[in-house]
Design goal:
It contains one helix and 13 strands, in the order αβββββββββββββ.
Length: 209
């Protein structure tokens, strides 16, 4: 089912820009750089039961690139730099760490400009969350080898751009990333699947060219 959903959405994200571009002889591009606060939900237990705490709220640098097909529609790619997740036991000792890095592709709709400088937008698309640098803390050798794999899922964004001048703007946005992760460890050799949905609250500065 997820494969079919991925193919359907990928096809829609390809066809929609072409249809919009056919109606617009000119297009522009936008690039942004900033940071986001990531609020994660759901983490692996690694065979240690539920007495774990997860430091899955973190901040990360972000970057995006958008193709503005016309005044209303744009195709955007958004990503974060890797951010670390820490898993702690009941004594607040770190038992394992790993890095996550989401990438999001979306089709965004820009609403009418308000007060000549405020440009709200909303979009829907697909995200890929990749996991890397799994590490077991000293004294937790029973968890090795630790393997965690990310997943893909639907994603959505809502935000607003505030023009500083003709080319530069600042942006605030909220993104929802629907994902899950699977993990295996020395104590849990059967794949364990957990929800890993994430909310990203971002602020950035951008340029239009």
């Amino acid at each position: 089912m997820r494969i079919r959903s991925t193919l359907f959405l990928a096809t829609a994200l390809v066809i929609a820009p072409l249809a919009a571009f056919a109606q617009s002889p000119s297009s522009t591009f936008e690039a942004t750089g900033g940071f986001a606060f990531l609020e994660g939900h759901g983490e692996p237990t690694l065979g240690l039961g539920q007495n774990l705490s997860h430091d899955n709220d973190d901040s990360a640098f972000t970057a995006s690139f958008a193709w503005n097909l016309n005044e209303a529609w744009s195709l955007e790619t958004w990503m974060t730099w890797p951010s670390q997740r820490n898993i702690r036991d009941a004594n607040d000792a770190t038992v394992a760490t790993y890095d996550v890095r989401p990438v999001m592709l979306s089709m965004n709709y820009r609403f009418s400009t308000m007060a000549q400088r405020y440009r709200p937008f909303a979009g829907i698309g697909w995200q890929w969350t990749r996991v890397s640098n799994e590490s077991v803390a000293p004294g937790q050798d029973a968890l090795a080898p630790l393997q965690i794999h990310g997943d893909d899922g639907i994603a959505a964004v809502a935000g607003i751009d505030i023009d500083l001048n003709q080319n530069w703007f600042v942006r605030g946005d909220i993104r929802y990333l629907d994902s899950s992760i699977s993990s295996t460890s020395g104590l849990s050799t059967m794949p364990e699947h957990n929800s890993a949905n994430t909310m990203a609250y971002g602020a950035s500065i951008g340029v239009r060219f």
